[in-house]
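Task card 7
Instruction: Convert sequence to structure tokens.
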Amino acid sequence: MPLACVLLAPWPLTLLSRQHPGIPVAALSESRKVLYASPEAREAGVQPGMRDIAALSRCPELHAEVISAPSAVAAWAELLETLYARYSDRVEGRTPGVAFLTLSSAAARELAAALHVPVGVAESLEAAQLAALRAKPGEVREAGSGAAEKAFLALTPAAHLEVIGLTRAHIERLAFLGVRGFADLTKWSAAQREGFLGVDVGKRVNRFLKGERTGAIQRYVPGRVIESRLGLDAPLYEPAEADVVLGELLPLVLTELRGRAAAYLTVQADTLGGQLSATRKLKGSPDASALLRIAGLALSDTGALPLGVETLTLQLSGIQQPGRMVGLWAGLADLEVTKDVLDRFPEALVRVNWLDPYAYAVDACYEWVDWLTGMVRPTPMTPRHSWKPALTRTQAHQKAVERTLAFFEDVPL
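Output:
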């Protein structure tokens, strides 16, 4: 699976731009000086280092705000949870603004279009980040592999060499010597690079040039997990007994889920040999019976039943609020109107819940449910039973006699 880099740096500026779309924004430091400015603000004359008053004098419609570290970290953690729930179970985001995850090329294009950010795809984290730096917002740049990756890296400019360990001071000194990018740096010997850049940075660059790169991402540890645990008096060996135990654990996690959706279901089994676990990806919003079947399959994946299960744990992770599409391309105005209507008239809207689209009876095809709770709610549009009631015994006997007489009337003597 290729590795993808989602570039959202600088994160405070990205956060402000998403909170206030369509207007120039600037992220301020604690001393009220501009740290980052959006392209629209820079075109109006706002520069990093300005006081907020000077920036507002240059751009009166500017929105300048101090983004505190706790709020930025919380928003970044929420974004990682979203990437984990919707795209991949291997997500890494140590530095706010740069996220790595395992992703196919098609899913990377979908993610880039959804977030309108540059995304790079490669076989290593470093190459993926270099590709993201050279991509446009909403587009995907692939570094390739083998000779294609080597040619791609050769065109890397000097400003992007921070990815492989260089600092701003190193890049300025290299520019003074005429080093324009990665290709010029490869012409130096290993000793020259260590002597000019320092031993630590030089060794890191040399290892990168030799092909020693990061090619794997650890599994993401979700912060929001719904868990239910049950200790057993006697070890569990039979699958039928395991289904009963899982049936007792499942209602507990569904109650805590409270209508939200989960992306992954994990089953952990404590045995005499240690703890075994397996994770299954959940598609859509399965019901209780489907979740019970998936939990049984995950338990069989662990191979813990032959060893004897002493404690069984059921976990739901990747918790998110399911979205409701108002239209095929629902705009902000449509969503706001729907929210206002539901706030004033909670029972005004219903939605259809398809039971069996291919059923002949209308009431077996679909039912109308409440927009917020999802409970069945009768309305004038609710399908009604269209078939006639069953015949009584006397009527059925009379119908049989009539069919018999009609048959003999048609038979010639």
